[in-house]
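testing teh design pipeline on a random one, pls ignore if ur not involved
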């Protein structure tokens, strides 16, 4: 098993081309892959104004608002009000997408995965959860609040710190608040 702790303080903010926000990559596979070659990618975005989303052919996305009032996400001409915090919303990354802020800036977790090679399940949890990486896949747990601990490993997570495990189960995550868990399987 491979287990990595990914600290929020170590992430670099990358400004968007349209000037509407910044993204901080949490993890990707293969590691270091450019945006046109990843199998999966998990990032945290700070969105400061309305604007178009980048198109990602062959990619499915899951967006979860973790701060702010939410967005009116227009995907392929259809409106999706994404205003429930901690509620994952799936949509195809190759459809024209536009985001309108509902009440000021938001932060969201963005999971993207190449549908031909990978599948992803996103869940927001609170309390205790057993983390399990599927065979050939990975599991990523992102603390949405301070106070998460991986049992028996003396690993604590503050807000937006993450754990990434490949292989067998890394154990039980106990949270004082919310955490987002992404299970990534090879397609």
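output:
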């Amino acid at each position: 098993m491979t287990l990595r702790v990914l600290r929020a303080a170590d992430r670099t903010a990358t400004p968007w081309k349209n000037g509407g926000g910044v993204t901080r990559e949490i993890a990707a596979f293969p590691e270091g892959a450019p945006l046109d070659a990843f199998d999966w990618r998990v990032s945290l975005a700070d969105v400061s104004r309305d604007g178009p989303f980048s198109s990602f052919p062959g990619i499915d996305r899951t967006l979860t608002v973790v701060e702010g009032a939410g967005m009116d996400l227009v995907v392929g001409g259809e409106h999706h009000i994404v205003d429930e915090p901690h509620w994952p919303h799936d949509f195809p990354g190759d459809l024209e997408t536009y985001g309108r802020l509902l009440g000021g800036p938001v932060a969201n977790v963005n999971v993207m995965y190449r549908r031909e090679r990978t599948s992803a399940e996103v869940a927001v949890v609170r309390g205790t959860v057993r983390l399990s990486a599927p065979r050939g896949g990975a599991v990523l747990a992102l603390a949405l609040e301070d106070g998460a601990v991986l049992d028996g490993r003396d690993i604590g997570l503050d807000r937006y710190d993450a754990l990434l495990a490949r292989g067998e189960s890394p154990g039980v995550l106990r949270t004082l608040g919310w955490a987002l868990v992404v299970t990534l399987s090879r397609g």
